[in-house]
Each structure stands twice: as C-alpha cells, then as structure tokens.
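notes to self, project folder thing:

trying the whole complex as one job this time. last attempt i did each chain seperately and stitching them together was a nightmare. two parts in total, labels are on each line so i dont mix them up again. if this works i'll redo the older ones the same way
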Amino acid sequence: MSFARRFFSRPTAAVGFVVFLAIVIIALAAPLLFARGPFAIVGMPLLAPGSPGLPAGSDVLGRNMMIGLAYGARVSLLVGISATLVATGVGILFGAVAGYYGGVVDDLLMRVTEFFQIIPAFVLLMVLVAFLQPSLTSAVIGIALISWPQVARVVRGEFLTLRSREFVEAARTLGMRDTRIILTQILPNALPPIVVISSMMVGNAILAESALSFLGLGDPNLLSWGSMIGGARSAMWVAWWTTTLPGISIMITVLALNFMGDGLNDALNPRRGR
Amino acid sequence: MPVDRRVVLGAAGLLAFPAQAWSAPNNSRVINAMMPAEPAHLNYPLLNTRIMQEICGNINESLLLFDWQFKPHPNLARSFAMSPDGLTYTFHLRNDVTWHDGVKFTARDVAFSCGTMLPQINTRSRAAFGQIASIVMPDDYTIQFKLKKPVNAFLISFMASNAPMMPAHIYKGTNFRTNPYNFKPIGTGPFKFANWKRGEYIHLARNDHYWRKGQPGMDGVYFRLCSTPEQRLVAMETGAVDIAMADDIDTVVSSRLSAHPNIVTRSDAYNGTAEISVMEANMRRWPFNDRRARAAFLHAIDREFLVKAINYGEGKVAHGPIPSTVPYYDEKALVKYPYDPARARALLDEMGCKAGPDGVRHRFGIMMTPDGGGAWTRISHYVKQCLAEVGLMANLEATDWPTQSRRSGNWEFDTDTNSYGEFGDPAIGTARFYLSSNIRKGVPLTNLQGYVNPEVDRLFAQAAVAVSREEAQACYSKLQHILSRDVAMLWLFDRLPLFYHNKRLKNVIRGPNGPSDGLGPVTLA
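result (full assembly):
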C-alpha cells in the first residue's frame, strides 16, 4: 500500500489534512484578500457577527474580526512551523550524537536535556520571552527551546537501536566516517517517528504561542489568535464572538494537526500493513 | 505533552472565581471593595498610588476636607486662617482626636507630618511644604506655618492624598521606609487596620473611638484581591463586592455594569484627582523636537472617536495641560488641534518630514503602558492606526513595569503613553511635567520629554507664589495658551474614570476627592 493510501485510509487524517490545507491557504491569501491589514479600524467596536461588512463582527477596537482571524492564522502557522523546525534540528543533533556515540558523550548530552525537561516548560518560556523582549523571534526561540528535548529523546532511542544493526556495521567496515553514517545510514531510518512527533509539535507550538500572546508576551505589532483572546478578555461578557471565534480557530488548527499526526503515524509505522 | 496541559490549567485558573467564599447578605454592615494588586506596604505618603489612597484614606486623615468647588472645610482642624500677606497660616486643631493606639493627636503630629515626613517622602507635598520656613506651636492644639514666600496652593495641599497626617510617636526618628508600622498603619480615621491576609484581603475594622460622632456608619471594610477584570465585573454583578473604583472595571463593559439594577455609577468621583491620558514625546529626538510634528500628531488622532469608541464613552477630549474638572482650567486660552489628517500631512511636509517611496515619513516607537491588554493597550493600537494614515509608522513596544519605569526615567524612548493626576492645583500636579528644573534623569513622572521654555518656567513660578486666586488664574491662563500653542505634550483625554457602588450603600462619594476621603460616612441605604 502506498504512503498516501495508508494515510488517507484513516478518515480523521483525511479531514485533518483538508482542514490544515484550508488554513494554510487562508494564511497565505490573507494579504491578497485583505490589503488593509488586521489592525485597520473599520467602525464602531463590538458589532455582532453579521453586521454589514462584518461576517465575524468587530472586536474591542472596531477592527474586522474576519481579517484578524485570517492574519492570526499566519502568525500561528509561522510560529508553529518555525519553532518546530528549530526544535527538530536541535533535537536531532543532540539525540543523534548522544545515541550514536553513547558513553560519556551520551551522559553529558542527556543531563543537558534533562536540565530542560525538569524546568516547568511554560514558566521557562515566559521568562525567556520576557528576557528577550516580546517579539516573533523571541517566541520562536523560546518555544523551540522548550520543545527540543522531546525530539532529542526519541532520536537518541532510535539511534541506540539502529547503531548496532548489520547495515551500520557494514558501513563502518567499508570505512565510512561517522558523520556520513549518521546522516546517510541511520537518520533516514530514524525519520518516521521524528516526522510524527514534529507534526504534533506544531500543534503544541501554536498553543504555546497563543498562551504567550494571551498573557501579553506576544509580538504587539502582530495580531495572533492568542492576543485576540487576551485583548478581548474583559469583553467576553458583552461580546462572545471576540473570544470564542479565535478560540475555536486555535482548537480546529491544533485538532487538525493532531489528526494528521495520527495519520502519519499509521502511514509510517512499518508494523502496520506493509 | 506538558505544554498544552499547562495552558489549559492556566486558563482555568484565570477564570476560577471564588465569589461565594465572601458573598454577604444585603444588610451586612461590612463593605467589600477590591484591589487589582496588593500594595507593597501601607505607608500612605511613601507609596501614594490610587489603591493606597483608597485603602489608607480610611486610616490617615488630613486637616481639611474639600467640597465640589474645591473650597476647604474643617476636618482634623476646627478652623484655619491665612494672614493677608499670604505668609502665615494658622490651624486650630480639634482636641478630641486620638490615634488608633490611644495616643492623643496634637500639633506635634502636624508639625512632624508637614515639616518632616511628608516633604521627605511624598513628592507631591514638596511644592507647598518645602516652602515652610518655621513652625510655631503656641499650644497643643494650635499650629502656625510661616512660609518663605506665599504659596498659592498651600491650602489645597491639605487635600487628603496630598497631606495624610502621620503619627509622630510612631515614625519620629525612625527610618520611614523600614518602620514596622508600614505593615500595621496607625491613623486617626474612621476605620483602623485590623488584618492583612496576603494574597486575599486587607481588613479594616470600625474605629469605635472615632472623633466624628455617629461615624463610621459601617462595621468594617475588606479590600479583596481581585486580579482579573472578568472577576471584578462578576463580583460587582453578583453583589459579592460593593464597590468598584477607577480602573477596577474595564471600560469595555462599563455600559453593561451601569445598566445593572443594583448598581449606582458615578463619573465625578475622580474630579479632584483629575487624571489626563497623554502621550509623551522625547523632544531630544527628531522630529519630536519640532512643534509642527507634535501638532501633526494631534491633528492625525481622532480623539473624539478615541473617547467615544475606543474608551467606550468614558472621559472627555483634552486640549491642554490642565484637566477640565479642576480650578484654573481656561478653555478660551487653549489652542486646539481638531482631527484633520490633511492638515497633519501639510505640517509634516512643511517641516521636511516627507514620505519616502513606501509612503512612510518616519518610523518610531510607542512604549506601551503594561496593562495586560486593557484600555491603555487599546489606546496605543488606535493611535498607531491613526498615525499610519498620515505616514507615521509606529512600532508598539511591549514592556513590563520595571522596564517602563527605567526606560522612561532614562529618556530611552521615542514616545510613550502615560497619565498624570492634577490633585487640585496645577502647582501640585501639572508643573512637574513642564518645568525645565524638573528634567531629572532616572526619575519617572518628571519632565521626561525634555520640554524647555523659560517663559513657562517663569509663569509657573509666578503662579506658585500668587496670593490671590485672580493673580494665579492670569498666570495659568497664559500658561495654558503657551503650552497648547507649543504642543508641550500630546494630550489625549481627561480620564474621568467611573466609580460604581451597590445601591445598598449611600453617602459613598461626597466630594471631588472621591473614595480617597474615606468610607466613614457610608451607611446602609
């Protein structure tokens, strides 16, 4: 069975993929559809959804919620994907070196990993972002820094089992250098779990960014779903849509990513129907 | 995965609301009020903030009380008089006042408060009490202040938050900043300090030996820590809390709370504090050193819309340095800058601040007031949008309180948002932001902008020593003209925050000093 057929054989994965694709398209198209940007004030605040020109209503500043939601998708995806890429890169580096070499190197790197794992992740994130000044970059760095240990652990586990397999021994006998073995022999075989964990991580990164923005630690010059909720908190008793709609957006996106993660797990798991 | 679980728990924690824990019956003789954050201590003059004025206004009283016209009336002083040359003030004190610990209140306490403690640690007292040349006490209940020169704002300096009387037998000869009574204050007021449960409440109990007969009308006051705006709204609506002071309730929901059948809304409770919301511009930097740029800012911002929509109708557009609710405000003297983006563009062109190929004339920062997404944040976002329309691109800079205070004190900003209180007289509340002698690096709430105008310095000095009100008015009218012509600050609006209380109480607001005059006369309705 092909990869695609195995992935789409799971209905939730298919739904997740379609929804995620739609969100990506909305995010990419936002500047084309809404040239004035999400911060433009278009009228009185707190107009209900369905008011003229405002299918999703207006927020506490009289901004078009629909535009805000579309632009919010950009921030969420940008932070989610870049933080995951950075975290995965760092995680692979630490996990591969630790798993491949073992011994003292392994001990040393794993202690560093544990150091990050024992600190409450969100507290560390808040301190980091406050220290680096709230911005998009600091959010990405902070989220990557609290996410990489997970990848490192998984990669290390894979490397530990793979490094003593025959094909690795064979490569070594052929005189291949360590870097080449790690990159061309072991890593491709360790990729499936990394892909699965990364897809889940995007969802978590989006949640973390939303939480940061909610607390006012997001980039104040960007409108994200979290900052939309944070800014409209006090209005939740008079205008439900100001907090509910961005909340639902976060939920749908993270759910779609998790569904996709499950699908990838099925599709990449060698023990299932190959 | 650890992150999402914490996020969910954190959000749940923010919403959790323990209203039932203190919900009281309607005829309870205990008043419940709120504080959005706990003060560091309860030494009134040392930390003269809004929440301190509201709590300690019940504990530490002043010699005088002020009516809606800002006329002085007896309080701890039975009577008072000024000599015709304006150099001597005589106060006759009540002889039936005792401190909460039973010690008699005498002229020595007044001499210590006005002569030593207040000028040392209460910045707003310095303008008046710094001019005291000598203090004479003919007997225990008479005190005479002889001044170096006339001080026009001397009597108004006895408005509650400017001159809380502090006990000499507790503080004299001690370090005011570390005295243990900063955590269990002693005063003469209708309520006395009872208990401070950290993280929950500050409890004030009835003072049974209060000098004013028949008061206090209630048995005690609780100031409950209520840290989020959603909590505070629900607490008022359910009746769990009786009083919501300025800023306790977000302006977004003010119409909802005002419409509540059990709630009384007052818009005059802070007429004396008279806060103006402003933007400060660092005039050491281009283009803010040019008055045309500052005028363009004001022309570009639709302040009517700002008040009506962004601040949900709370406040009144400000055109000058003196708020419209206090003495000496003179609307005729003001040069106004109505909303007119075309005029703003013309002024910027004229001064050479021209648009580049991307339509941007200038990029600069707005240092935001850290209020967690409340009214201040909304104002900054709105201003940014208005200025973008005329080609001024603002970068919003998020800060926390220590950063904000450090950067503004060290002049490390382009523009910021801020507000300042007038406290009854321009010499107390306004002059400090425009006097060139008050450009003091490292000190927040001074002339941070670096505004210098010798004529302004001279007029403020002349007004401060004026003996008659007319003479002072002439100076202040001229000042309002010059400062508004110079656009000496970017005035946005008089804040006039709303004050709410449950209908079960009456006599809550009795003068322009609002809740800072204490809750002694409050009774059940």
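what i see at first glance: Residues 44 and 56 of chain B are 6 Å apart (CA to CA).
need to look closer tmrw
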